[in-house]
Structure formats: C-alpha cells, structure tokens
Amino acid sequence: MREGLLVGRELEVLRAAPLTYAEVGSRSELPDAYHHVQRQTNLGEGAARFEEAVRILLSGGMHRRAGLRVRATAASAASAASLADERVAVLHLGVGMPP
What we know:
This protein is of the alpha+beta class. It has one domain (1-17, 44-99). It contains 3 helices and 3 strands. Strands 1-2-3 form a 3-stranded mixed β-sheet, with no helix packed on it. It is globular, with a radius of gyration of 15 Å. It starts with a strand and ends in a 7-residue tail after the last strand. 3% of the residues are buried. The model has no long low-confidence stretch (mean pLDDT 83).
C-alpha cells in the first residue's frame, strides 16, 4: 500500500468490511471507551488563513502533519461529500507503516 487514493479491489474490500467500533455517527458527547485528546491553538486571522485551514483539514493535512499516512476515496472530504455513505479513509501510524 502507498499513500494516495483508494481504488479497485482494495476499496471494494474495505467498503464491504464491518466497522471495528460501535460508535458510528455524529454525537454531542464523546464515548467513554476511548482516550480523547483535545488541543487548541490560534491559527491566525483573516479569510485567507481560514480558507487555508479548511483546505488542510478537509484534505487530511491535519493527520499528515501529526505523522500519519492517509489514503482515502477522494483527495478531499469536500469532493467526497456526494458519496456520503461510501467514503473510506485508511490512516497508518508507526512501525510497519507502508511506504
């Protein structure tokens, strides 16, 4: 596996696989069974900085900057919005991480 878009047989297998967690969907409270990390920082000011932050967030840049490798069905979560129930993302971290 390499970083990039998920396609073909690999994507079919991932879409057919069951979720590995029970807490699915949006919620107002975080589930107790997980360790939660919350961090706040000032990203700057102005419309241009806001747009850049949005682009980074929707493209997986937040995860990449944290050291993860990201593969997904689209380059941006915004471009995948019409595929609401068909989006897939794979995040890799640590030893054994694909190149």
